[in-house]
Write a structure and sequence with these properties.
By secondary structure, this protein is of the alpha/beta class. Helices cover 24% and strands 27% of the residues. It has six helices and 17 strands. The strands form four sheets. Strands 1, 2, 3, 4, 5, 6 and 17 form a seven-stranded mixed β-sheet that branches. A five-stranded parallel β-sheet has the order 8-15-9-10-11, with helices on one face. Strands 12-13-14 form a three-stranded antiparallel β-sheet, with no helix packed on it. Helix 4 packs parallel to helix 5. The chain is elongated, with a radius of gyration of 21 Å. Keywords: Flavoprotein, Oxidoreductase.
Length: 306
């Protein structure tokens, strides 16, 4: 059986696209390798979502998922491992193969790593990438935060509710986060900010006990910490595409204004799209735009048939 649309990923962009597809009467199917909701389940607060100020990630995930469920769009809990540009498209998963007239890639990204000595060795032993999951384990301890964007500062504030001290390290001379978050962090006595400082090594014995840093003047230091939370960006989940769908040197999918890729009939939405602001609101908007573009594409294909 051939679907009208295969949506890869059930994060904010994918759930929104599935909802719009259902309303439009498209025969759509969503593929998700893990849990519907994407990174929302790992976020304590979402502070930049219009109409829902200071909503928790799980709460927003529930809202989007319940709205998605209003229409009969199935979610297949299988990992997509390949897309073949055939007529129709073939979507190969960990459980089989499926066919669709159009494809929307919306499988988001994962946390970037520092790529420094000791980081991978101490992952799960003091180095962590989900503040909401692991942060409460560091009550009354010292936690370092790597990163200075909105997500990093939001999570630093969350960690400050648990840890005795939070030390935030940003390689740039100024924090790239928004002004309101910078002000809140600056006024929090539990958080120390060190800009122009790079983490160069993670050390310890059974668990992490310190990190090596160097500042913009070349001064080095060893900082004793009990945990290291890494939030230095997002790496798009596009490796499975191989050469099937072109990406840029960062692995992001390049699209036009209608969110169509260089491959006719294949669209991209959310954090893995080149130029995405990588916010939940932007991902939801992408889901709507991409699905509307899919509708126009499918209609044009029908009109062109003899």
């Amino acid at each position: 059986m051939t679907s009208d649309l295969a949506i890869i990923g059930a994060g904010p962009a994918g759930l929104t696209a599935g909802h719009v597809a259902g309303r439009a009467g498209l025969d759509a199917v969503v593929f998700e390798a893990e849990t519907p909701g994407g990174e929302l389940v790992n976020r304590d607060r979402i502070e930049n979502y219009p109409g829902r100020p200071d909503v928790s990630g799980p709460e927003l995930r529930t809202t989007l998922y319940e709205q998605f469920q209003q229409y009969d769009v199935p979610i297949v809990l299988e990992e997509v491992v390949d897309i073949r540009d055939e007529d129709p498209f073939t979507i190969a998963t960990s459980g089989g193969e499926y066919a669709a007239r159009a494809v929307l890639i919306a499988c988001g990204g994962r946390a970037s790593t520092l790529d420094v000595p000791g980081e991978s060795a101490y992952a799960g032993r003091g180095v962590f990438y989900c503040a909401k999951c692991d942060g409460p384990l560091y009550r009354d301890e010292v936690v370092a935060v790597a990163g200075g964007d909105d997500w990093a500062l939001t999570d630093a504030l969350f960690l400050a509710d648990h840890a005795a001290e939070v030390i935030l390290f940003e390689t740039e001379s100024e924090l790239p986060a928004g002004a309101s978050l910078r002000e809140r962090v600056a006024s929090n006595s539990t958080i120390e900010v060190r800009t122009g400082t790079e983490i160069t090594k993670v050390t310890g014995e059974d668990v992490i006990d310190s990190i090596n840093v160097i500042d913009s003047a070349g001064r080095t230091d060893i900082v004793d910490v009990d945990g290291l939370y890494v939030q230095v960006g997002i790496e798009p989940n596009t490796e499975f595409l191989g050469d099937a769908i072109p990406t840029n040197d960062r692995g992001e999918i390049v699209t036009d204004a209608d969110l169509q890729t260089e491959t006719d009939g294949v669209f991209a939405a959310g954090d893995l799209r080149c130029g995405s602001p990588q916010t939940v609101g932007a991902a939801v908007g992408d889901g709507i735009t991409a699905c509307r573009s899919v509708q126009q594409y499918l209609e044009s294909q029908t009109d062109s048939q003899p």
